[in-house]
Design brief:
The complex is a heterotrimer.
Chain A lengths: L7 H11 L29 H12 L9 E2 L13 H6 L2 H4 L11 H18 L3 E2 L6 H16 L3 E3 L6 H11 L5 E3 L3 E2 L2 E2 L1 H7 L4 E8 L9 H9 L5 E6 L17 E5 L15 E5 L3 H4 L7 E5 L5 E5 L6 H4 L12 H38 L4 E3 L8 E6 L6 H10 L2 E2 L2 E2 L9 E4 L6 H16 L1
Parallel strand pairs in A: 1-15, 3-4, 3-7, 7-8, 8-9
Antiparallel strand pairs in A: 2-10, 5-6, 9-10, 11-12, 13-14, 14-17, 16-17
Helix pairs in contact in A: 5-12, 6-7, 12-14
Chain B lengths: L7 E2 L4 E6 L2 E6 L1 H7 L2 E5 L6 E2 L4 E7 L3 E5 L4 E6 L2 H4 L3 H4 L8 E5 L11 H11 L1
Antiparallel strand pairs in B: 1-2, 2-3, 3-9, 4-6, 5-8, 6-7, 8-9
Chain C lengths: L49 H12 L22 H7 L2 H4 L11 H18 L3 E3 L5 H19 L5 E5 L5 H8 L3 E5 L9 H7 L4 E6 L12 H10 L3 E5 L19 E3 L20 E3 L11 E5 L2 E5 L16 H37 L15 E4 L1 H4 L5 H10 L6 E2 L8 E4 L7 H20 L1 H5 L12 H6 L6
Parallel strand pairs in C: 2-3, 2-4, 4-5, 5-6
Antiparallel strand pairs in C: 1-7, 6-7, 8-9, 10-12, 11-12
The chains are: A alpha/beta, B alpha+beta, C alpha/beta.
Chain lengths: 452, 128, 479
């Protein structure tokens, strides 16, 4: 095993120092009757070359996104990733560090986290951001139980326009705390505002709104904010796509109390859905801050008055408050948050606007062209950011067939909604990486498939 | 360790000063020293009623959290709002500016259960 | 030496990115989107060049310390070397560039790797079925406890209590609360192990589970594990194994053989995946057969030669991640296990235990060793002797930084005063161990001869002792 550097003579010397004969003598505390007494049924050690050969062989069984023109989104997005990100995070002082317990030797991680927090606040229009949570869905789960604690109420309105997996995760998190989840049905591709108005009452702990929603549409945020105006305690939790916030009014402007979401679109690859990062930002409220889950980095000074950064308000966290902590989270997604920070810094004020605008314009272009095809409907019409809900109404062709035939043309045409919801159609995602040629090809291919 | 005369003390390291049926309470010099730099004090509201030994608030240092317990039963008549912005008063002046709440005693007999200065000093020595 | 904030590098109009020109007709988004949804003012992000960003983050990295920099003896964190080849594996384009909504038939290679990883994790722990979904150790604990919750719910038993020893990781009690249980703490005995009498007192019909780390956070193996497990199981409760310390027992003992019902792993500890300054991690959960129905949805299965995700799990505890967990971390752990091989895993544990015992032996005369019981991969010293000279453990830790070595985990476990929890791991060589030992001895001498040197440490780091009280009293959390 090449990662153990002590040689047998060195090991022997160490054993002599300790005063035992054999390494196995060090394990005497483990009772005989529970000792594991056979070799593992795990193959023999591989050299680097053998390992790479083996893994390449398995990798070859995948058809990765480079083999397709992919329109898959639904929570995981393929955006342009500046080259510098991977180069910088591979600096081993970042990459191989643990949680910054010793602040004086971890200023790099800590300052980068402070910058991450700052940029998430800028983007979301919120006052305070934590240093990341595990992913977007679990961040929503944490937000729900935070709202439960903060308001001491148990009703949470979780409309059907929220990502189905996020709904599932939120329910899993909320259930042990007696959270009662209420649905709001769809109206077209938006949540039904009348139903929402009926469900909202003084005892509602929180309303969750996804922005843009799972089906790609923007909810009527101004109207929703109006509905909440008279409910003093009810928190507005917004699940926002951070890239969309380059173009869209930030949730802070609509009076959001907690904003969460998946930070993966910010400079992180798709990686089959992980690792990515959950972000969480709240309004600037001291009482709410004390309920916030996850690590926080704060700015301070050293004994000589030099600026420095530390993990702060740790009494909220599990290692100090144990069973009374605001969450059990310890390990977060620090490296992914660093990637998001480098992304936001590199793209910057102009870049994030340009990415968002290109996503929007290209989506609009494809949406408009597809809507011209007979038997094809875009449920969202012109209310969308970078995803839309495509319905295909051709009695002679099933959606599965369409998918299959598009795949044969090397196009992944979108996520089949039937896999995750009780709705029919495809959820089509377009990002700035698409060219007009790609989009025209999608349209042409679909026409061919439908008229085959 | 400063243990002033004329106060009552508890095993939770709280002190109590009683004047005209109203008690003022805080944490002792020993307690603030043990906790380290105090960064936050969570206070009850005026009018809240508590039984003796009830948890009425929380005090936090950088790396520790401690519940606060009332030495006697009664109603909160005043809270030290200065602590919200200057929690360090608990470190700097635990028996003066660092007081936490005032309470109208509902049962003065409870005082008999508390320690006096000498007893608390002995208690501290035993603890050590 | 301080590094300015990234925004201070900025200059209006400066750009660090390049995108192709928009090649479709452009429209004003405000014309079509719902009222008020278009952003009025741009987010105030930095405006820097690529060079600015590279210089800035490089300079931040120079203010950091990783396991590639030197020893990282954080107890219970298992900061072993992170093999570089694992990074190459995780970056193979066919493996990395796959979308979570791609159909199973397109990702069979990845699913095969994940399936094998599940098999290895089941074999190493002696358990039957595995979920790779939890994204961290604490996430794994939560899933494990929710499985237990579901199990009793299904059986119609109302069990409200989870027992946690006072030496446990803080995540254990916090996870108990997250999963809706009342947490009952029990004391350790004078040997640093679970006190059987306290346990007996705490065990009743309300107990859902006992959470145990074995070896515990003192590095001490709970010798009475057989009695403990009997006591819990006879009361109808289940046994949860916190796998943070798995590096101590690979090939020597398996939680499954100790009759544990649920365990979580930390792939970022035992299986060498880099921790990235606090994450990502991965916290797979392994269970005995009878608990398999309650695993998070979906579960990876094999049918003939095909791998697929099984969503038909009516008794599932639910879901804790939008997709399948930290897949990229799993690839690295798979590579690590294959590089080590079955026998290599045992050697890893042997050397981890040897290194820790060597250090303990060399340091126990200089610093107090509060528990003399045999320990495995980590040990806990106390700075209480030094505290009598007015120097606390945090001072010792900070002084270590001056010698360009990371400090142990301090003030944990809570049952040891002035605790220093040391876990060198198997990848440190004798020279590095000796250097740490020597430094600890030097610091002890400094405490006698020049205490203010230690008291005011660190002196050589980029910043000196930071004011944590100021940070917490007046939180400055953003620019």
């Amino acid at each position: 095993m090449k990662y153990i550097s002590n040689t047998p003579p060195e090991q022997k010397k160490m054993l002599q120092e300790i005063g035992v004969e054999e390494i196995s003598d060090l394990f005497q505390a483990i009772p005989e009757n529970i000792r594991f007494d056979r070799p593992f049924d795990i193959p023999e050690a591989l050299s680097e070359l053998e390992l790479m050969e083996l893994v390449q062989e398995k990798a070859a069984k995948n058809l990765d996104l480079s083999k397709f023109d992919s329109y898959l989104g639904a929570g995981s997005y393929v955006h342009y990733i500046p080259s510098i990100i991977d180069h910088l995070i591979l600096r081993s002082e970042f990459y191989t560090a643990y949680t910054p317990y010793q602040a004086e030797l971890s200023q790099g991680t800590l300052q980068a986290m402070y910058e991450y927090q700052s940029m998430i606040c800028e983007l979301t229009g919120m006052g305070i951001s934590n240093a990341s949570l595990l992913d977007g869905a679990s961040a929503l789960g944490e937000a729900v139980i935070m709202a439960r604690r903060h308001t001491r109420n148990s009703r949470v309105i979780l409309p059907k326009t929220v990502h189905p997996a996020y709904r599932n995760v939120a329910r899993t998190y909320g259930e042990p705390h007696g959270v009662e989840f209420l649905n709001v049905p769809l109206q077209g591709s938006q949540l039904n505002l009348d139903s929402l108005a009926e469900e909202l009452d003084d005892d509602t702990a929180a309303l969750v709104v996804q922005y843009p929603n799972f089906y790609g549409s923007l909810e009527e945020m101004e109207k929703i904010a109006e509905l909440l105006e008279n409910l003093k305690k009810t928190l507005l939790i917004v699940v926002a796509n951070p890239i969309a916030l380059g173009l869209l009014n930030p949730p802070g402007e609509f009076g959001a109390d907690i904003v969460v979401g998946e930070g993966q679109p910010l400079g992180n690859g798709v990686n089959y859905g992980g690792p990515n990062l959950g972000y969480m930002a709240i309004k600037d409220d001291r009482r709410m801050l004390r309920q916030l889950p996850g690590r926080l980095v704060g700015k301070t000074e050293d004994v000589e008055g030099e600026t420095g950064y530390v993990m702060t308000m740790q009494t909220r966290e599990q290692h100090i408050r144990r069973e009374k902590a605001t969450s059990n989270i310890c390990t977060n997604q620090a490296l992914n948050a660093l990637m998001a920070a480098i992304y936001l810094a590199t793209m910057g004020k102009k870049g994030i606007q340009e990415v968002a605008n290109q996503c929007y314009q290209k989506t609009r272009y494809l949406r408009a062209r597809l809507a011209e095809i007979e038997g094809v409907e875009v449920v969202n019409q012109d209310n969308h950011f970078n995803e839309f809900w495509l319905k295909i109404d051709r009695p002679e062709t099933s959606l599965e067939e369409v998918e299959q035939k598009m795949c044969e043309k090397d196009i992944l045409p979108g996520v089949n909604l039937a896999e995750m919801t009780d709705q029919k159609g495809l959820l089509v995602c377009v990002t700035e990486k698409k060219t007009r040629q790609d989009l025209d090809n999608y349209v042409r291919s679909l026409e061919v498939v439908l008229n085959d | 360790m400063n243990v002033p005369e004329g106060l009552y003390y508890t095993e939770d390291h709280e002190w109590l000063k009683v004047e005209n049926g109203v008690g003022t309470t805080g944490i002792t010099d020993f307690a603030q020293e043990e906790l380290g730099d105090i960064v936050f004090v969570e206070l009850p509201e005026v009018g809240d009623e508590f039984q003796q030994h009830d948890n009425f608030g929380v005090i936090e240092s950088v790396k520790a959290v401690s519940d606060l317990y009332l030495p006697v039963s009664g109603e909160i008549t005043e809270i030290n709002e200065k602590l919200l912005d200057q929690p360090e008063l608990v470190n700097d002046e635990p028996y003066q500016g660092g007081w936490i709440v005032k309470i109208k005693l509902s049962d003065e007999e409870e005082l008999d259960e508390l320690m006096d200065t000498e007893e608390y000093q002995e208690f501290l020595e035993e603890e050590a | 030496m301080t590094e300015p904030l990234i925004k201070e590098y900025g200059s209006p109009g400066r750009k660090g990115y390049s995108l192709p020109e928009l090649d479709v007709p452009e429209e004003n988004p405000g014309e079509r989107l719902p009222a008020g949804t278009v952003r009025k003012e741009a987010a105030e992000l930095p405006e820097v060049s690529e060079v600015d960003a590279v210089r800035h983050f490089t300079s931040l990295s120079n203010m950091n310390y990783g396991v590639d920099s030197g020893i990282y003896p954080l107890g219970s964190c298992t900061m072993k070397y992170n093999p570089k080849i694992n990074e190459d594996v995780a970056r193979i384009p066919n493996l990395a560039n796959i979308h979570p909504h791609q159909k199973e038939k397109y990702v069979q290679g990845s699913l095969e790797i994940l399936y094998k990883l599940k098999q290895y994790l089941a074999e190493i722990s002696g358990m039957d079925e595995v979920s790779l979904q939890p994204a961290s150790g604490a996430h794994g604990e939560y899933v494990g406890l929710m499985i237990i919750r579901k199990y009793f719910e299904k059986r119609g038993e109302e069990r409200t209590k989870v027992i946690v020893p006072d030496s446990a990781h803080g995540t254990n009690p916090a996870s108990g609360t997250m999963a809706g249980f009342d947490v009952v703490e029990i004391e350790s005995n004078e040997r640093g192990m679970v006190d059987l009498d306290s346990l007996r007192e705490a065990v009743d019909d309300d107990v859902a589970a006992l959470m145990l780390t074995n070896p515990n956070t003192l590095g001490i193996f709970e010798k009475d594990i057989c009695e403990i497990q009997q006591m819990i199981h006879e009361a109808g409760g289940l046994l949860y194994y916190d796998g943070a310390n798995m590096n101590a027992v690979l090939g020597y003992a398996r939680p499954g053989d100790m009759e544990f019902d649920v365990i979580h792993y930390n792939l970022h500890k035992t299986f060498s995946t880099p921790h990235g300054g606090g994450g990502p991690g991965s916290g797979p959960v392994a269970v005995k057969e009878r608990l398999a129905p309650y695993l998070p949805v979906p579960v990876l299965k094999k049918n003939g030669s095909e791998y697929y995700w099984d969503y038909d799990r009516p008794d599932t505890m639910g879901k804790v991640h939008a997709f399948h967990g930290n897949y990229g971390v799993m690839l690295r752990a798979y590579a690590y296990i294959r590089t080590a091989g079955g026998e290599g895993l045992k050697e890893i544990t042997e050397n981890a235990v040897l290194n820790a015992n060597y250090m303990k032996h060399k340091l126990k005369d200089t610093y107090e060793l509060p528990f003399a019981s045999d320990s495995l991969h980590e040990f806990v010293l106390s700075g209480s002797r030094q505290k009598k000279d007015g120097i606390t453990t945090v001072n010792i830790a900070k002084r270590l930084l001056d010698y360009e070595q990371y400090a142990p985990t301090i003030y944990f476990p809570l049952i040891v005063k002035e605790a220093m929890m040391v876990e060198p791991t198997e990848t440190e060589n004798l020279r590095s161990l000796d250097r740490f030992i020597e430094t600890m001895k030097i610091i002890s001498r400094e405490i006698e001869e020049e205490p203010e040197l230690v008291e005011n440490a660190p002196h050589n780091t980029v910043v000196r002792r930071l004011d944590e009280a100021k940070a917490a009293r007046n939180p400055d959390l953003r620019w």
